[in-house]
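Hi again,

Forgot to attach this to my earlier email, sorry! This is the prediction with manganese (II) ion bound. I've pasted everything inline since the attachment limit keeps bouncing my files.
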Amino acid sequence: MLITDDFLKHNSQFALIAGPCSLESEEQLGQFIDQSSGIETVRAGLFKMRTNPKSFQGLGADGVQIISKLKEQSNFEFITEVTDPRQLELIDPIVDIYQVGSRNMYNYELLRELNRLGKPVLFKRAFSATVSEWINACGYMPDLGEEKIILCERGIRTFEPSTRNTLDINSVIYIKQNYNFKVVVDPSHACGNVDMIKQLCFVSMAAGADGLLIESHPNPAEALSDKDQQITPTHLNQIRSELIKLAPFFDKQII
Ligand code: PEP
Ligand code: MN
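Structure tokens for the complex follow:
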């Protein structure tokens, strides 16, 4: 079941969204799609907000053709990050869900533009934003509201350096208790390493999250961004099978 058809209208569904950090080639994303099972909402970044300007910036406009071609071959929804309103015209034909990244939570002009477009938005928390600032920023997308904004907890910056960020699981519980937004967890950016992903997925389901956004690459060692935190499709399939077993305990159904 696809997120835009079903997930946004029901409370018991648990969405698994996965794919590479960045789109690198048709072959790379094609392999991910072939090797992963049951992932109907595929992520891959076209425009990357890298901390170091010399790092790989994404394929940008060149990625649009690749996604259109892959979409003709397999049925999936595509989610990608938009970093500037000027990209919207170019990418809108291939995008089903827009991702707003942590570094753009406060980009209110971008949020206003997405509100105007009307497609669902996966809205990441800025790494130093309070929950209240995050929820307030949703107010810039009033027409999307709780029905079309999917909040994404991706870890916050704390004094703890042993992992990339610290997953604020409290925020997931707090938001589910106080609002009607869907909340998904991104364990990949929250911890930054492949060895903790499975546990964070379990914890997120137990906390009442509505889904997960997981980075997965067919060949993580060769990835052009975030290579330490991308799991293989085989690893992803294992986590998915375990989540399918856990889901009934939490009144959830994996989509
Ligand atoms: C991403 O999802 O690839 C990403 C850059 O995440 P974030 O905005 O949470 O850092
Ligand atoms: Mn990434």
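Residues 233-246 form the longest helix (14 residues). The mean pLDDT is 96.

That should be everything now.

G.
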